[in-house]
Amino acid sequence: MDLGIGDRRALLTGASKGIGKACAMALAREGVAVTIVARTEATLLATAEEIRAATGSEVTPVVADVTTPTGRMAALAACPEPDILLNNAGGCPPGDFRNWGRDDWIAAIDLMMLPPIEMMKATVDGMMARGFGRIVNIVSRSVKIAQPELGLSNGARSGLVGFTAGLARQTVAKNVTINNLLPGIFDSDAQREHIRGMLEETGKSFDDIWQERARSNPAGRYGGTEEIGAYFAFLCSAYAGYITGQNLLIDGGSYPGTY
Fold it and tell me: 102-112 vs 151-171: helix axis angle to the nearest 10?
């Protein structure tokens, strides 16, 4: 299926590995010119070369930390008029809310809530003026299924989702959509880091927790990052202009609710 975006340009943050990398790869396969942003230069450059070799598309790597104004400026300088924006960032380590102080909460907001809002502020008006835009935030299923050990993420990401709900209704008439993808468990480095953070508290081994989480999912497995990449690519397509302000689960059916 031709998604109708082969002439578009995309700016993707947190795109050197895992879900972000899969999203960049999926767009590049559609002929989209992608600018990928991450903090670790070696990993980022290797990913850029991998995407080029696999797709033949234009790939621009930018080493930057978009939690900082300087990092956001560098990303936007490399791709000042994106048609597609992916906001993707890692989360905070699991823990007990009794151990978190004000600095921990501010750091969580500065990581997971404010940078995506700033990136949207910098790009959404231009998208509306040009008559096309697709913004997708990678959030977490924790905004629908709160996980006790992820309180920082539950709070900060829910703030982003709440903000997006209002903005998305203001932009869709100009063919600019804003949606949130809510991943469940995926076979990714982020998932491995999350489980490592649970070892001391649970007293279980990494393999035990990894396998338990797969067995407890209705699909009986972890999602593949290429699956979320394909979902993302469709949301960015010319055919997704009537989908906006949505929180879209991709979790193997683990969310237990009807609605």
Answer: 40
